[in-house]
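PT: before anyone asks, these are the final sequences, not the draft ones from last week. 780 residues across everything. Please model them as a single complex and drop the result in this thread when it's through.
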Amino acid sequence: MSHSRQWTPADPDQPHARRIGRRQFLTLSARALSTMAAASLLPDALAASNPEHAGDLLTGTAGIENARVLSQICERILPGTDTPGAIEAGVPDFIAGVLNIVYLDAETQRFISQLSAFNAATTTEYGRPFDQLTAAQQDSRLSAMASDESSDEAAFFAELRQLTVYGYYTSEPGATSEHALTDYMAPWNGDIAYDDVGRMWTG
Amino acid sequence: MTEHSTAPMIATSSEPWDAIVVGSGITGGFAAMELTRRGLRTLVLERGPDVVHGRDYLYEHKRPWQMPSRGMLQRRHLDEVKPVQSRTGFMRPGMERWFVDDTEYPYLEDRPFSWIRGYQVGGRSLTWGRQSYRLSDLDFEANAREGIAVDWPIRYQELAPWYDYVEGIVGISGRNEGLGQLPDGNFLPAMAFSRGEEHFKSALDAHFDDRMMTIGRTAVITQPHRGRAGCHYCGPCSMGCSTGSYFSSQSVTLPAARATGLMTLRPDSVVESVLVDETTQRASAVRVIDRVSKEVVEYRGKLIFLCASTIASTQIMLNSNSDRFPNGLANDSGALGHYLMDHHFKVSARGRLPGMLDRYTEGYRPNGIYIPRFRNLNKTSTQPDFLRGYGYQGGSGRQSWRGREMQGFGEGLKDQLREPGPWTMGLGAFGEMLPDATNTMKLDAAQTDAWGMPLVRISCEIGPNELAMRKDMATNAVEMLEAAGATDIKSSDRYTPGGIGAEAGLAIHEMGTARMGRDPATSVLNGFNQAHSVANLFVTDGSCMTSSACQNPSLTYMALTARAVDYAVDAMNRRDI
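LR: through. Structure below.
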């Protein structure tokens, strides 16, 4: 998630801020993507009002496919077990929000391009898009993606995993089922027995 | 931020205020409290909107899933609106509003200088780091000893009782260690080390004779104190604290001033200049532009305290021109706007401590450890390559899932992230920056802000002494971690010439530009923060600093403020002012 920036002098002539209104964080329901097979990750109104926006790549036929692929990748990274998986925890929606209001336009554009390229390569190899593979095939494909650590695909996998992990463990279903809920009134203790907690604190 | 003015209508009556304080942050709030307690009718002018204690702490005690964008900074918005403010890691999601919009409050950087600001009632006291350390005579005597800049007009002995007094009000938790370079104080019980920090401290004691580690001295109370509740260790203080367990203007000084019935606080009041009576050569009034309506109002006052923060106070003085002071108020020396300093930092190291995997921590301690300065204290610690010194802040805990190294994916990844990672220990240095006449702020008359104020133009960067010091900072951080048996040690220095990452200003300890000194020919303020040439004008924020030391400075600003008020009110009662 790190990024480098060139220093530019504070510019008093810069026009006053464009307002964020149309870029409000998405408020799709927590499980929208798991229930809405054809959901687009961005409202059509957004794309229509801002056609140059990279989010266009998440709408239309290609966008729907990207949304399905993204959801399946997240779910394979943190699958449902005896605790919720990434889809149930709303991780794909979270990532859509990141693309919409955290990433800069160029980063979102690059992300979507890599997602499309990943799925195109998958389709070439398996004869079907990623979201239509079996779970075992999906895992095999993701393992291959991560295998060459110097490759762009592996870097993209690391990014997807980072986003999925962040979205999952900051979600209520993920954090409360996997971690111990911190008590906002507990005193500080710098040396307790780990077994008294038995898992990581939420946070 | 509200877009309607909450400013009370205050008539510009013929009766002057006993005192006018410009700014409501760390020093403005303190000045307001001290002045009203001494019986003065005091007007406090704050350029930003009001922030109400408790009510406006929107994200206190919120879980990650209740936070905007789950606690991720909304870079797309921030890059547009707060491109400078978002350079600091102090800006956290949920309290971005306590950092100014750079688009609304532009300034000019000749070289990278991050001017990080909070324009609201309470100023940066809402968001500060709270570390509170005394300066010592090692600091107050340094300029004179080394022939650098000018001598401080005060020594530790003069400020010590004011440190005692301020610490008693603020509530500082910490440990007395008997160090000459970091004087003991009037502390509340210290917070405990973590298990990892105990390990590190033992190694430090075993391997190094010249340095030690103590718990951070922080303006967070560890037990009930003057009507405030002790810390309940909930999480990041800067989301706001309704129990008032960390010191802010909202939790301590403004309520105390309000309780006297003598304070009037006027938010949305941009101070344009201080007016001078040419006959008496005294400051006579403050000219205010309403932030929202742009209406211009003048308030007359007998005493004027500039506490608008470093740079902002000097900006007002440079914009206050008269026949008597054609180059800025009280600027007979020409020193006004020069000798801008910060602390230089972003040299750090982190490593993994061995073992202790059966131990863990509970609660969020809003504090870390401190390794006081150990360079250039005496002959044996004299460094060939640099003057002055630095201290380390840091801490140790077990890694959470954030930033953790991960293997693979799937159920195995879930298993990895269910348990905390290894103990790690991190150290980051804060170093002294020498005062230099060429590090300046000026006004650029050709460009003005929305209130018609000339823009500040800053030209400031660290020099050879700081660059040499940074090498020592990095080397020693790594050596200490190695001594503690740490592995996977990674160190970094974020400084690049002309780049951002460790540019001046980023430590948010900017100071100087209206320095104190003994000689009116070379300094702006005397030893009581009083302008040499304008007897009823006092500047008690960081602008007054003659050198920067390496300790976090706010405690010193508060001590200087309390001392200056005491002096000013006594002088006024004697009719000397």
